[in-house]
């Protein structure tokens, strides 16, 4: 299992970004979390197969219809930092 942390910038808060990210992650078989950051970004931590993480990253650039994503930054994360299921916070 591989894990990655994504930082998503743009109009990504108040547009159901975290909820739809959870739905997409679960459909890909990933576990982790999505949370709003104080600086306006969304942090997504996810773990699972590399191909599923790549698919999630591609989806993060689009997000829900009301989102306007300007950047997605990906960094490696330890899989032990990820719990079961996928939660938003």
TrEMBL record:
Enzyme Commission number: 3.6.1.7
What this protein is called in its record is acylphosphatase
Which residues are named in the active-site annotation?
A: 18, 36
Sample GO molecular function, one term = acylphosphatase activity
**Which keywords belong to this entry?**
Hydrolase
Name the source organism: Denitratimonas tolerans
**Alphabetized InterPro entries for the sequence:** Acylphosphatase, Acylphosphatase-like_dom, Acylphosphatase-like_dom_sf
| All copies of domain Acylphosphatase-like, residue ranges | 3-89
What reaction does this catalyse? an acyl phosphate + H2O = a carboxylate + phosphate + H(+)
Top-level EC class:
hydrolase
Query: A Pfam family for this UniProt protein?
Result: Acylphosphatase
Give the record's family classification: Belongs to the acylphosphatase family.
